[in-house]
Amino acid sequence: MDLATLRVFRAVAREESVTRAADLLGRAPSNVTTRIQQLEAELGTQLFHRNRKRMILSDAGRIFADYAERILNLADEAQQRLDPSSPRGTLRVGSMESTIASRLAGPLSRFSRAWPEAQLELTSAPSAPLLDALRACRIDCALVAFPPDGDIGEPLDLETQPLFREDLVLLLPSDHPEIRVPADLRLRTLAAFGPGCTYRKLAEDWLMSDGGSGVRIQEVPSYHAMYGCTAAGACISIMPKSVAELMGSSGSVLAVPLMQVVTHLAWRTGFDTASLRAFRACLTEGSNLQEHTDHAQ
């Protein structure tokens, strides 16, 4: 169970194909097949279900995939820590979808131009799953939103840097009367991401703040879906103003200012590589905060 074999396993798991994994790794398909068979023999369990030409992870394979990802990430981190001269290798970045849409184009471009030997691997999820992935070493850093009270769960294992101030707006159908308090809402269906999204939690808390009736959640996969459902009159939604402004062509809505929330970059305490430092510098350059002071939570 060496690192090379784990990389082969990860590639097959991601591609669900021996042929595509072999092309990605620059290996012969027969070599990839042999590596997987040897790994399964060593572990004493079947890692994949062979379904025609697809390789689907078994239950045991899904468990092993999580460990393999963490082992490979830690090995890459160790190499970068021992050679801190300049950014290189892969930095695994998690981010909220809203931050990717409205804040990351400039920082990603600056990073890739300045450090061609380094690679950013970007994934998207709500804040709570990102923090779980960060603590499990599946990603190296994460752009997340915390509630205004600053509660981030288990704070002592993370360091954070505030980067972007977002103005959250409540979106209503264009024919909705003006509102002053949640009780004025005609609709009580909220289009939102799944559990773990800070903005969803803030919206639910606000909707219940007047002691009114509960809210029904319509889970959707994207901000475009939220905006479209609201413009169609089916529900209400909440998102950063910077994201809503990108979607004007998707229909007409009313935007009601709600509150401000700060997006932070979070990373594990002690994680310090040249790639992370360079990425933080690129993000700081694009920050809309007056102060860019680092602080450990």
TrEMBL record:
GO terms for molecular function: DNA-binding transcription factor activity; transcription cis-regulatory region binding. It holds the Pfam family HTH_1. Keywords: DNA-binding, Transcription, Transcription regulation. PROSITE patterns: HTH_LYSR. Gene3D superfamilies: Periplasmic binding protein-like II, Winged helix-like DNA-binding domain superfamily/Winged helix DNA-binding domain. Residues 1-58 form the HTH lysR-type domain. Signal peptide: none annotated. It comes from the Bacteria. InterPro entries: LysR_HTH_N, LysR_subst-bd, WH-like_DNA-bd_sf, WH_DNA-bd_sf. The keyword RNA-binding does not apply. The keyword Transcription applies. Belongs to the LysR transcriptional regulatory family. This is LysR family transcriptional regulator. The lineage of its organism: Bacteria, Pseudomonadati, Pseudomonadota, Alphaproteobacteria, Rhodobacterales.
